[in-house]
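P.,

For your records, the input lines for the assembly:
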Amino acid sequence: MRPQGAGPIRTTTTVVIGAGHAGLAMSRCLADRAIDHVVLERGEVANSWKTERWDSLRLLTPNWQSRLPGFGYEGEDPDGFRTMPEIIDFLDRYARVISAPVQTDTTVTSVRADDGGYAVRTGRGDWRCSSVVLATGACNIARVPDVAEAVPAGIATLTAMDYRNPEQLEDGGVLIVGASATGTQLADEIQRSGRTVTLAVGEHIRAPRVYRGRDIEWWMDVAGILDERYDEVDDIVRARRVPSLQLAGSPERSTLDLNALTSIGVQLVGRLVGIGDGKAQFSGSLRNQCALSDLKMNRMLDTIDEWATENGLDDEVEAPHRLPPTEVEDSPPLGMDLTGGAINTIIWATGYRPDFSWLEVPVFDRKGQVRHDGGVVDSPGMYLMGMQFLRRRKSALIDGAGDDARDLSDHLAAYLDGRRTGAPN
Amino acid sequence: MASTETTVDNGVNVEALLEAREALSEAPEAAKFTWRASCKWVNGTHSNSTVEGFFGLGEEQKHRTTFTFDADHPEIFASEDNGATPVELVLVGLASCLTAGVAAVAQNREIQLRSVTATLEAGMDIQGILGMDKDVRNGFDGINVHFDIDADASAEDIKALVAQSQKRSAVFDIVTNPTNVTVEVN
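Structure tokens returned:
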């Protein structure tokens, strides 16, 4: 048992909640500014990576790309992709190198506004502080669609967060709902385990792993696509909702798109739109979803080609090429009997959402999302990290934490100065 | 974009639509619309439908005029053919929704349209509606839409217009996804 509310109330300037890459990057930036702080972590450093990911997952971005303030990759395989133990080790070493003041096994149970600052209650005592950084991440809870309630008894259901490896599943058919990075990787692994996979495909973003001989993330990095700012895009609400790129971090650096899945026998169907009378219903929009995705990918590759030409790279890299269009059969199935034994398992790969149930400050919009301007939360002294397109397209990547932490710690330091001098902020 | 100053005009007031979108994000309740139609049996398979009022932006609204639609079945069904069949009206709904979407998206993307023609075809095995074979559904076994579009844009950009139009189309959604239908009798 953890002691509840034990000890006297402790005081610090800034409480950072969460010791993942975002919280640690912020800790480093606060230390650089000599701002007294503590990092509260419900488990251990890199807790989500340790406890909420499937066994075979590798980071979707190459080794060289995990650049944190004062830390980066120094190994001999810059183009490789970290396994889960390697990511955990990487973040553990970062926490040690920067001497981050992490309090592990400390679950925050509430954050409240208190006397011009914040009161942070944890399972191991309470804190008072002037500012708070929410760095608990964007992926605390697996989203499950409402139709899950209508799944017939006898079918095992699990989320991508519960999934570890194919051996966990019964033999036979598996319906995977969702075809972004998670759904496509699970479909590949589970189909190869000898189970037959049906993949329900909604909106998705296709991308080649390697383009013109370079990793797609390399292109997006050098061409400035990942640095695009939240206040520069046409529709930030939409940009924050865009699904993850269909990428996998395999040693072969192979592209994991719907064509690759079809070629190993995965059955593609439209978005799961209903379950009734023991039957799953799939949308008739699969062809357009694939057309939209192909068009979007080709626009990005056009942007990359233009950038390569403008920057004189055409002779250094391979010639431009395009992937064949996504193949969709003439009449994809619109329904599937869930009671006949063809499907034993349904896996929800329908995205994740953050958990701010402990945040007792009125900063939520009508959709329950934290109101913020590029991570500056609508409550003085409160900051948000690690969300999709928080300040830049790369904000949710490990590689995005550094620039965001630098910007937001600047803002935080100015806020603290303003409080000290009594100037309005 | 072309170097000469051109004004794209597809007859769609995109500014008004974008302003409405902005206003509705502040007042999402006003975005809840109710659409209505009424239908009177005339004789045989002939019926006459009317659309007039609808609800939206928080109050009752009215079309500029009352619109009526005759529906019937062709003579080979031993009917009098006083109007399009209901399934053809579904195709009309889908075609006009996608076409309106193409115009709106083109305006927003500053693409001048010169002509847009949609041609639709839907297969149906009437053993379903005649109750001859329970394995045959009543409705279409598929719908094919073909667009011929002449516009100041690349082939890829035109494909993107049509794809985006499907993504934002109400009738495309209604046709491709299930909808609960409740039918009551007085």
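Two observations worth noting. The radius of gyration of chain A is 23 Å. The first strand of chain A starts at residue 10 and ends at 11.

Regards
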